[in-house]
Amino acid sequence: MRLLRLILPVFFLGACSKAPPNFLFILVDDLGYMDVGAYNPDTFYETPNVNRLAREGMLFTDGYAAAPVCSPTRASIMTGLYPGRLRTTDWFGAPQPETASNHWTRDRALLPAPYVDQLPHDETTLAEALRSAGYSTFYAGKWHLGHEGSYPEDHGFQINKGGWERGGPYGRGRYFVLYDNPRLEEGLEGEHLPARLAQETTRFLIENQDGPFLAFLSFYSVHTPLMTRPDLQAKYEAKRVSAPDDAWGTEGDRKVRLVQNHAVYAGMVQAMDEAVGTVLAALDSLNLTQNTVVFFTSDNGGLSTSEGHPTSNLPLRGGKGWLYEGGIREPFIVRWPRGTPAGSVSNLPVMSIDLLPTTLDMAGILSDGHLDGISLVPVLQQADEPERSGLFWHYPHYGNQGGSPGSAVRSGDWKLVTFFESERDELYNLQTDPGEKQDLSTSEPEKTKAMKVLLAEWQQDAQVLFPSPNPAAAYRLPESDAKRAR
User: Is the pTM of this model over 0.90?
Assistant: First the structure.
């Protein structure tokens, strides 16, 4: 296990009257960058409570998830490490090379890279680090970081309300009871899951108001299945009358939604936001707001190319499962009343790997081991911005949403995406082209070369794993023979 060194005099010596900060993490599943009013004033969805967080804290315009799908990003939050280094590069349950023959990608040119399908126990998690410093730790909602034996309670969380191996609420009632969740007691008939998770979090805050505490509220929302409360669906069906009609484009071989007008998804977003409001109101009523740092983000981009195509990420390209901006750029908000002026904005590119080192810095804990993330405390305090060579992504898998195996790097305003199947490189300047419409790899050969070198150096340092050629792709039956074979 990675060793951590505590600097106790910062908060815990009796001569120091300053109380250690509390931490509230709010992680929303599949929430797109353009789904939140603070980032998109024209959004179809209503998010007043998340908008409040942005007004009262710092909004990062260029915040990223460490992967275009959920489990890898979640692992990066817990460890401060890139998924490529951890080898937790796909959602847990996706095909391994030896099981790809049973998957829809069985005829594709590449076999996916092998990946680790549980959060490694030899890494110190966010909860373990804070618990060792005297924090009470709580988890509510989606985990999706391993099977039994690798649940939240196995990685430092003292209380777990609803976190297990499943990536969505797939019980009999789905988002309503019966949940069929072994880590969440059944509620009353008609109970709605996001509200229940907010209630559990509020109960923890009340019982631990003397702190210090870490409360991690990880919504199953707004992941599929697409369903919401009847009153919210009716509200947005009425609102949709004056919204733009459906419009579609293409991304690869998938159709991609170009407008936001999905009434059910809108209801899911609002229900999530209402639950956020419940927890923020609890902090206010308990007089905990001033000493509680709130982090708000998502684990990947909005779902736009598959599974109901519920949202649009425009002007960002693509969505969940893609290495384009729509798949990895996220709402990223930090409210730190004692450290950050309200209404602050930062354009520094940041990532989910930065959340753990930032938290440890605030709590006065130093890591003796390597972390890929950096502390954002200087940024939040509006001091000098930290420097790093770039941000990196490694997704050596075919995504359910149509994405292809590849890697990416962002350095400054430049972003390179390299696709393993086609051996194609794409170069974009995000300052002038945030929608990644104009590939500059041919017109900027020197920049492309430099970015490829930067990416290769990181891949070597992190010892990432790559896809392998798929022998089954070398020969395919003619369609007439394939029909007979079936």
Answer: yes
